[in-house]
Amino acid sequence: MRRQRYWTAPVTSRTDDLWDAGAVDISYRPAVNGGADPGEVVWAWVPYEDDPTQGKDRPVLVIAVEGESVFGLPMTSKDHDRDADQEARAGRLWMDVGSGPWDARGRPSEVRLNRVLTLTGAAVRREGAAIDPQIFAAVVAAMGAAG
User: Fold this and answer.
1) What is the rounded end-to-end Cα distance, in angstroms, of the chain?
2) For a pLDDT cut of 70, what percent of the chain falls above it?
3) Which pLDDT band holds residue 145 (cuts at 50, 70, 90)?
4) Which of 36, 47, 88, 102 yields a CA-CA distance of 20 to 30 A from 59?
5) Does the pLDDT value for residue 49 go beyond 80?
6) What's the chain's average pLDDT?
7) Cα(103)–Cα(92) distance, integer angstroms
8) Residue range 126-141: average pLDDT?
């Protein structure tokens, strides 16, 4: 059986029109309500960049919600600090965000700063946790610097 995918085409680089034109409100607003809210780490199926027909379930940091669209940054427990130069040459920029209850094994996480995913609300299957508000602010600032 094929897994049903609930996403729209992911944006593989920062999209200035989202931030500069004020199209979406990027502000820390987690709420324990079963939905995806900015500042929360949720889980969703994320397509691979090199083959969007495949992907994996992973944590996503929600940065904004507009109507049925959830904008988020993919997260990983893989440490990209050791290969930061190589990742940057490939156009992938990462930031450490620490560990939290979104990872059952308590591993530190990194967030991809320059790959904004656009998911539907139905793509988010569960809330993971709210990230620290200072870390959220640092991620948003780093996104601006990365663009």
Assistant:
1) 39
2) 81
3) low
4) 88
5) yes
6) 80
7) 22
8) 89
How many CB atoms within 10 Å of residue 50?
A: 6
10, 60 Cβ separation under 8 angstroms: no
Amino acid at the residue 55: G
CA distances from 44 to 23, 27, 65 (A): 23, 21, 15
| CB contact at 8 A, 113 and 95 | yes
**Nearest C-alpha neighbor of 60 from the set 79, 81, 80, 45:** 45
The whole model's pTM is what? 0.83
Beta strands (DSSP E) in the chain are 40-47, 55-66, 69-76, 94-98, 109-112, 117-120, 126-130
Average pLDDT of the segment spanning 114-137: 86
Two structure tokens written together for 110: 């990194």
Distance CA 52, CA 2 (A): 14
CA 146 to chain centre: 15
